[in-house]
Amino acid sequence: MNFSSTIWILILPLAVFLVTGLFGNKIPKRLSGILGTASMGIAALLALNIAYSYFFISGKTSDTYSAITVMKYSWLTFSPSLSIDMGILLDPISVMMLVVVTFVSFMVHLYSYSYMKDEPRYHVFFSFLSLFSFSMLGLVVASNIFQMYIFWELVGVSSFLLIGFYYDKPSAVAASKKAFIVTRFADLGFLIGILLLSYYAGSLDFNVIIERLSTPDSSFLQTAAAASFMGASALTWALCLVFIGGAGKSAMFPLHIWLPDAMEGPTPVSALIHAATMVVAGVFLVARLFPLYHMIPAAQNLVAYVGVFSALFAAVIACTQTDIKRILAYSTMSQIGYMMFALGVSGYGGEEGLGYTASMFHLFTHAMFKALLFLAAGAVIHHVHSNDLSAMGGMRKQMPVTNILFLLACLAISGVPPLSGFFSKEEILTAAFHHDKVVYAIGILTAALTAFYMFRLYYSIFWNKKAVHSPSPIEKGRDEAEAPPSMLIALFILGVGTVAAGFIPFSQYVTSDGQAFHSGFHLSLAVTAVSAGVIGILIATAFYLKPNNRSDKFSSSMGGLLRFARNKFYVDEVYTFVTKKIIFNLISAPAAWVDKNIVDRTMILSGEITALVSDEIKSLQSGKVYDYVVYFLAGVILLSLLTIIY
Which residues 6+ apart lie within 8 Å of 83 measured at CB? Predict the structure, then answer.
């Protein structure tokens, strides 16, 4: 099977970015949306065809799904053994990600066609969406770790443009800068990790790096293991630094502070960033290098503990927020934490690698129900013109279709069978139970909190009180409270994915070693996980289904803990203190004084001395021939005297 059509999946969004970016104001406004949506629809169909061909026809060799390099050419050659190549690598996780990214991006484009119709910069929005999609697609098929880094940075740039799309809003500008700066610091760690890996592996190619640094008797591995700093091997440092880059993109604690503010972008942007692209890039990065992480317990434990802490931390904060998009943002952080700690507790090969498979499975199912949640939330915001829960309530009669679809997504993320989230979350918790009971216990607690805050959100929007927003006479006449058809179609398709995605036998296709295995169903563990979700739902039902003061009484009993959680445990304030009081005042201010009073004045003084000397000697260049003859004769006489004397 020839997989050369993969290149068109990248070319299509890139072409739309260029056309709509350069000529968007010269073509009919809605044509930009049509071009963007059509190109992503074609890309999604191509991705599905490639996935079918890879998983069912020609991807398997001797019962193992192998990595296929579709194309490769050398871009920069440093030495015969080290070069930066550009290529397309297809293996189970990259093929899966092609499907996820193109499908969700297509749904977001389709939804945005109507959602953004009143925007004056309509063509610019679709141009940025296409750039974002191209960047993420290039990242997931990269055959070279430096090629991945290039697209990694392109994802950062395009997210900066999308988050700051409403550039006339100071809050949007601040949010885009915050996301860009925080992820840049994390990306510095990624870059240093890349340099270490390439130095000790002698290559930037993923397959070569993994082969050389994971083979026990490899001289490359022995060299990397022998070199150490502060008691840790060079390979351990490299993997930890790479993970810092992934933690920044995936908004893991403590690099999560950009994620809630990123909600300043248009709602479709939130869906694209949170469901299938930017925030799962870190999970994909760890999965791509998983054979190396599995060999280094310290690095893998870092992934597990940061992931599980982030999952719990974000879930607690989500329980206290009142902005619909920020609740979903913290929900995303929590679910990404699940994916991370699943990788952190996973073994390698067969059922031992259940955590790896479960992580990728949850990435897949999460893309469906989280995109549905964000886009359904967008339909609600589109109707009430507010993000705050206080402006919502009792909307199930005005928006019956959105109500049902939002409920499905809430049930899925809560792990209620037989929806998709149940299957993937159950496998994650099973893997945690068999490898680390502490991580498992925190995962169960987080599952209960997830169900609680999601149904708190659901009841606050669709139940709890009579509708706050009264429809206009026109809306009453044609039930316009529901979203336009193109938005509803996207929601309905994602709803189907939310229901059906869990029935895919993921362990037959995406595994740590490429070999299929049977992931058994553990009834007792499943009952525990579902029970935790049901408890969370029941508590939310008691508090928020109908107006009452139970939640207020409970909030009063929590005292300071609730205040801390509502203020996001003051992590932003800590960053502000460190930045302004320490970095700006104790480092930047002295550095600025040195720069202004020493460096600048030294340069100014050297210029003044040069000008003074020039002014003194410029008379030597008089332009008069007899002056030059005198200088010449004086020189000859001086040289003659020196010759006679010496």
Answer: 74, 75, 76, 77, 204
